[in-house]
Amino acid sequence: MIKIEINDIDGKLNSKQVVSKSTGEILTFREQVAYIYNGGVYPEKFIIQLDKDASPYAAGFYTLDDSSFTVGDFGLLKIKSIKLIPISNK
């Protein structure tokens, strides 16, 4: 199972606004920092981009929902969008 952690310090919602060069429209990007445990000595930091109406993820441990994956060109497995589901503490 893929294990992802969002913590109280790094996992706070971060919003960035940029102006589109082509349209002049203001674009807002909403992000959270997370860490993935992928078998190395330490977890690796990565960024989760949130949809404009999505609530930020609470601190805790998660795994990727099956809907996050797709098969792309040439049969390669890809992550199409990150959707996390909490890991229960049972």
TrEMBL record:
Molecular function GO labels: single-stranded DNA binding
Domain of life from the UniProt record: Bacteria
Family annotation (Gene3D superfamilies): Nucleic acid-binding proteins (2.40.50.140)
Presence of the UniProt keyword DNA-binding in the record: yes
UniProt keywords, alphabetically: DNA replication, DNA-binding
GO biological process: DNA replication
Cleaved signal peptide residues: none
Pfam families to which the protein is assigned, alphabetical: Phage_DNA_bind (PF02303)
Name assigned to this protein: Single-stranded DNA-binding protein
Species whose genome carries this gene: Proteus vulgaris
